[in-house]
Amino acid sequence: MHDCHREIVQWMEPLGIKVRIDAAGNLRGVYAGGQPNGPRLLIGSHLDTVPNAGAYDGILGVVLAIALLEELQGPRFPFAIEVLGFSEEEGVRFGAPFIGSRALVGRLDPQLLQVCDSQGVSVRKAIEDFGLDPEHIPEAELGKDTLGYLEFHIEQGPVLEKLNQPLAAVEAIAGQSRLAVRFVGRANHAGTTPMHLRHDALAGAAEWIGKVERAGQGIPGLVATVGRIEAKPGATNVIAGEVRLTLDVRHSSDDIRRRAVADLIREAQEIASRRGLSVNESNVLNQPAVAMEPFLIGHIEDALAKAGCKPHRMVSGAGHDAMILAERVPSAMIFLRTPGGISHDPAESVASEDVEKAIQCGLHLLQQLAASPEFYKTPNFTKG
Ligand code: HGY
Ligand code: MN
Ligand code: MN
Q1: Which domains, from first to last, does the chain contain?
Q2: What are the tens digits of pLDDT across the range 251-285?
Q3: Ligand 1 pocket check: which of 88, 90, 323 to mutate, most ligand atoms within 8 Å of Cβ?
Q4: Does ligand 1 have an atom closer than 6 angstroms to the CB of 157?
Q5: Looking at ligand 1, which atom is closest to the CA of residue 89?
Q6: What's the sign of the alpha-carbon dihedral 63, 68, 71, 76?
Q7: How far is the CA of 49 from the centre of ligand 3 (A)?
Q8: Measured from the CB, is residue 379 less than 6 Å from ligand 1?
Q9: What does pTM read for this prediction?
Q10: Among 177, 255, 246, 237, which residue's Cα sits nearest to residue 209?
Q11: Ligand 1 mean position to 272 CA, how many Å?
C-alpha cells in the first residue's frame, strides 16, 4: 500500500493536489474549488483488492477521478473535489470489509479496531505498523461540507456486456451477510475407523456446502458462496476433526437475504446433529442493501446520454464503499462494462473506449452539478 500511495501521489501532485493519508490509511487529496473553504464533492474507490486479483477492481475508480481532474486543468467548480483511495474495502485480511470508508462515517470503532487477522495482528496494530496513529481516526470523519460521493467502478459481472452497454448508473447495492462457520467432529485414523463410527467434520461441511449452493440456485436473485475452507489437522490419513469455512450471502432484499442465512444455519445444525458434530457460526458482516441517491442517478443518466451512451440503471451484486458513504452523504456509482464478466481474477479487464466514455460522462456530470445551485448551495441536500 505504501508503494501504491507513492505511485498515486506522483500522479496527483502535478495537479496541485496536496495528498495526505488519514489515520485509517485512506489516501485523500483535495482539488481546490472556486470558493475557498467551500463545500466538496468526493470521488474515489478502494486501493486494496483480493488475492490473485485483476488490475481494475477499486483502483480504476481512483485513477478515473485523477483523469477527470487532469482533463479539467483550470476551470474551478463552486465546490472542491476530494479524491479518495480507501485503504481496505474487500475484507480479505481481517474478514470485516469497508474498514477505510467506515472511518469517514465514524464507524471505525474500538470493536472493529480489535478484530485480528490470521496472524493475530489487530486492525489497530496494523494501522500502527503502517506508521499511523489510530488516536487520530476521528479526524478522518466527513465534515458537514461534503456534498456527496461518486464512485466509478467496474461492474464485475456480465450484465453490461450482454446489453452491449459501456456504462450504467447503479440504483442500489445488494445487501450482504458474511459469516464464519465452524464444524467440530472427532479426528481419527483414516485407516482404522469404520465409516459408521465417524464424526467427520469435513464430510459434514461438504454436505452443507451443497445446501448453500442449492439455496443460491433455488431463490431468484440470491447468491450464496463458501469461498474459503480450512480442515484440521489437514492430513491425508486423518479424519478432519474441525472445519472452518466462510459464508457470503447476498440479495437486493434484506428480508430474503436474512431468511436465507437463517435457513442455512438451521440446515447446518440439522447436519451436525445427524452426524454427531457440533456447529457454530459468528456474524462478520450484516450489511443492509443501500439505495443510491436519486438526485445523482438522474444527473448520471443525463451525463450518460451526453456521452453518447444509452442511460441504464442496475443493481450491484458486489459491495462497494459507496454503500458506507451513503450513510452520511448522497452517494452514486457509475459502472463500466466488464468484458467476459470476469472479476476478482487476473483476467479482469476494461475496454479503453469504455474508460474514455466514463471520463466524458464524468466531465458532463461535474458540469451539470456545478450548474445546479441546489446541489452545491445546500451541502448534504435532502435525498430524492
Ligand atoms: O465482495 C465484494 O462485494 C466486493 O468485491 N468488495
Ligand atoms: Mn472486489
Ligand atoms: Mn471493488
Answers
A1: 2-174+289-376 (3.40.630.10), 176-287 (3.30.70.360)
A2: 999 999 999 999 999 999 999 999 999 999 999 99
A3: 90
A4: no
A5: 6
A6: negative
A7: 7
A8: no
A9: 0.91
A10: 246
A11: 30
Ligand 1 pocket check: which of 154, 156, 316, 323 to mutate, most ligand atoms within 8 Å of Cβ?
Answer: 156
Ranges of the chain whose pLDDT falls below 50: 381-384
